[in-house]
Write a structure and sequence with these properties.
homodimer; 296 residues; alpha+beta; 7-stranded mixed beta sheet; 3-stranded antiparallel beta sheet; 15 strands; globular; DNA-binding; transcription regulation (chains A, B)
DNA sequence: AGTTTGTCACCTAGGTGGCAAAGT
DNA sequence: ACTTTGCCACCTAGGTGACAAACT
């Protein structure tokens, strides 16, 4: 299926750690990680300088759904489980799209870029978190080990990142489709799964456990011209929502992340306490995840 | 989504009762309905004269999956439940496709045409089935009320067909896709649902209960030419498998149909008797229904 | 009397985190 | 000591025919 786009994908560099390309920022206090850019500042991501763009994509605007929930997770340091068989993300990455050419064909896809070149570990005891890290190449000073309880204590830099995994992308299953179709309702990436299996042959996204990642969202205009490869650079637009960054883990490290997942993910309802009034998330966070269908 | 094809759909006439356009046939004894053409004779349907065709579709060949199971149902007189919310078909219509241009785009769709202009009812007592039908406009003589037990007794003609329902079509959700993708594995129409709700707004197939229908399968080459509407007639090819014809019902009329559904549909396992050895269907009939996915 | 509707118990299919055990 | 794996109970989500009640 993805053959129609393969040429255009070369333009998405996925190997180097992601850095914000636009706007300045100041250190924030609510992140458990050093040197984090601020989040939640923009409703619609500013993709920064990407060169001249086809108006078919330059006018496209994207809105992150469940933004409040993402921010709630991000303040604790979002973790996403990776398994051999592949695990969905929660929250699910969902967007509302505006500004497409209703009659043009677009493909939507996601990929994940490393947020830094570090490997983390969940070690030590509270108090010695900042000082006793192993043979790490830690450069920046960890500014905060805030008031949340880790499974053991805190995130420590454990060294340089493991070799980069194959930089896979995930096409939304409905790709390609007309702009009108994409804009009709919320687009949900609920089929996307994360795995730590380097040999995965199910097409899942391969990530290294204990590493941090930034999801990216790409809108690609399917150029009908025969020499469309020549225009690949102008025919896509990328969006980054910093509040969706996360640490890949094989088991949750921060117990408050676990509790928030249980409180907000319908599939984890079995682990909720009987009284369902003590949620920290608003009820709308529990609304069912919209899906898109072609058959209508 | 279907906009790219709407012009081409006009060529599919769905209003008049379907009749076999090719080959001769003789009366058969295993059908509970009068004047039924033979079934199961051809592995691949012969669509008959459809005018000159684009080689992109003329070389396409289609093989019905679960053929043995379809025939088993057809010998009893297949019934399909229709509900207000929409009900899936069982068996599911599934095909294996050969002969497509691997690089060309195709859309696959189904529609349903009336098999005759009659309305049926499930009336009378055994023995008086053939003679005492109500004020029907019955023209042909019912030849067989074979050795199976109806809920009451037999299918009687109850009069002329109700006004034809809106002739909806169901696009396979993966449409459009490359020939290579369609041929990679079995294509399953398991998202298709039948309804008796004339006001249905879920895009389901609308049928009249107590009427007989012939499912049809259409392969449409998505012509990249700007004036593709001009070539609509040559760009599609239709296939009919007579063993898939059925009567739409709101509740099963033939108890042997019910039992065969229970025996062969995994979702009806709850109604099976404890010993699972007394099936009349081969174990392969119970294999899971393959689905196709774009995300790989 | 025949047909349709809505509810139900019982399934399939698959997404949760917990947890013990294994791995490193 | 920390991380990963496999299995589990418990969910969501939705596909079955049975059945009683309603409809016509």
């Amino acid at each position: 299926m993805a053959a129609f786009l393969s040429a255009g994908l070369g333009v998405l560099a996925t190997s180097e750690p992601y850095t914000l390309t636009s706007s300045s920022w100041e250190p924030r206090l609510d992140s458990p990680f050093p040197s984090d850019p601020p989040t939640g500042a923009q409703v619609v991501a500013e993709p920064g300088k990407q060169g001249p763009k086809n108006p078919r994509v330059s006018s496209v605007t994207v809105q992150l759904e469940m933004k409040a929930l993402w921010e709630e997770f991000n303040q604790l340091g979002t973790e996403m489980i990776v398994t051999k068989a592949g695990r969905r993300m929660f929250p699910t990455f969902q967007v509302k799209i505006l500004g497409m050419d209703t009659l043009a064909d677009y493909a939507l896809l996601m990929d994940f870029v490393p947020l830094d070149d570090k490997r983390y570990r969940s070690g030590g005891r509270p108090g010695e978190a900042a000082g006793t890290a192993g043979g790490g190449a830690r450069k920046s000073t960890p500014t905060c080990t805030l008031g949340y309880a880790f499974h053991s204590s805190a995130w420590l830099v454990a060294g340089r990142a493991d070799p980069a995994t194959p930089g896979r992308v995930h096409f939304h299953p409905d790709s390609p489709a007309k702009g009108a179709q994409w804009m009709r309702q919320i687009v949900s990436f609920d089929k996307l799964k994360l795995t730590n299996n380097l040999l995965d042959d199910n097409g899942h996204i391969i990530l290294n456990s204990m590493h941090r990642y930034q999801p990216r969202f790409h809108v690609v205009f399917v150029d009908p011209r025969k020499d469309s490869e020549r225009y690949a650079q102008e025919n896509f637009k990328s969006f980054v929502f910093t509040e969706t960054q996360f640490t890949a883990v094989t088991a949750y490290q921060n117990h408050r992340i676990t509790q928030l997942k249980i409180a907000s993910n319908p599939f984890a309802k079995g682990f909720r306490e009987s009284d369902s009034d003590s949620w920290t998330v608003p009820p709308r966070a529990l609304l069912s995840i919209p899906t898109r269908s072609h058959s209508g």
